[in-house]
From TrEMBL:
Pfam families: Glyco_hydro_1. The lineage of its organism: Bacteria, Bacillati, Actinomycetota, Actinomycetes, Kitasatosporales. NCBIfam families: BGL. GO terms for molecular function: beta-glucosidase activity. Keywords: Carbohydrate metabolism, Cellulose degradation, Glycosidase, Hydrolase, Polysaccharide degradation. The keyword Hydrolase applies. Belongs to the glycosyl hydrolase 1 family. Its EC number is 3.2.1.21. It catalyses: Hydrolysis of terminal, non-reducing beta-D-glucosyl residues with release of beta-D-glucose. PANTHER family: GLYCOSYL HYDROLASE, LP05116P. It comes from the Bacteria. This is Beta-glucosidase. It comes from Streptomyces viridiviolaceus. SUPFAM superfamilies: (Trans)glycosidases.
Amino acid sequence: MSDFPSFPPGFVFGAATASYQIEGAAHEDGRGPSIWDTYSHTPGATANGDTGDVACDHYHRYPQDVVLLRDLGVDSYRFSIAWPRIVPDGGGPVNAKGLDFYSRLVDELLAAGIEPAATLYHWDLPQALEDRGGWRVRETAERFAEYTAAVAEHLGDRVPRWITLNEPWCSAFLGYSVGRHAPGAREGRGALAAAHHLLVGHGLAVEALRAAGAREVGITLNLDRNLPASGSPADLAAVVRADTQHNLVWTDPILAGRYPATEEETWGELITGEDFRRDGDLELISRPLDFLGINYYRPIVVADAPYRESDPARRVATDNRYEEVVLSGVRHTAMGWPVAPATFTDLLVRLKEQYGDALPPVHITENGSAEDDTVAADGTVHDADRVAYLREHLTALRAAMDAGVDVRGYYVWSLLDNFEWAFGYDKRFGIVRVDYDTQERTPKDSYHWYRELIAAHRG
């Protein structure tokens, strides 16, 4: 155990993936198109024009991938369910073949002694709903609840842990403001409406899961530790705006039943006079949770900056008078993200201090690094930088637990190299290498290190 950070008995070790990133089979067995099918087929939207049409072919190779999970020794596997496989048009008839695929996957996991943890939305919105307004409109939240109920009815007897949304920040702001994720929009009020309706969809999905008797219900947020570029009042104020947009817009409604007090300072005219909130929404959004999922990769350093667009009518929701600057003096991953594990501890401790007993038990639902892997002559992958990243961040996680944060589990991102959204197949996060030409899977050194860590805790 001396070479590994130690965790208490019962701590859940897992691995995570997402449907569009690994499944492929984009047009099989009644699956409808998603916004990521549309976006990835748009010229110039993704690196090299890459799409998820085939990805890791997990749809056909899932038994092989479950064997990898079994041999890894994980307690739990976090996967996501593709809404367009279940309800191809977003609403209306349920596709039995789509439900059957996930039923087979769940049964395979259970037979291997692995607990399924299902994410209901990991960004693959049915295109038919986007055509009717997407997350900008409340109807999408209502259809999400119906889809949730259908999935829970079919799988709820075997899936103990449910996650409503994965990283709604990315869905709302990368998708509807920055335009770097599907559906590729660049909007102001539309992005803020999307953020709110994602929260409404979460609340409605929690109700549907509770009605179906779900044992554990939570949501996954990608919270960021935002650091000031300097101690100047302007940079410190910029951090407040960054915290509002990245963190408080989610955590305040979910954990405290309130909207951020700093939202007008952050969004100004875009939030003033909004018309997408309704009486009772906060009560719905703040339904009690069994756990909070947190995805963490790196800190963000921000400096004060003027509006990029002076006209509020043309301003996007992420134009909040700050800019990200490079954190020097540390290693950066292949994504260009700084490796600063102490900020992981800091984020979790600050969250506990901020919300106190309102913070439910935490699961780290994603953590990992993209690295410039090379394949040795014998076919092995010696990813020492990824091993160091995982060791350092698990050590930082243990430090947060020692400081009083109730963390129950950790899921490495990701089991497999996969389609990394707008980066296509250029970035590799997996602890298992995928040769996209042959679909051959090769466990990397990080896979073996993680397996040894898990075995040491069971020994």
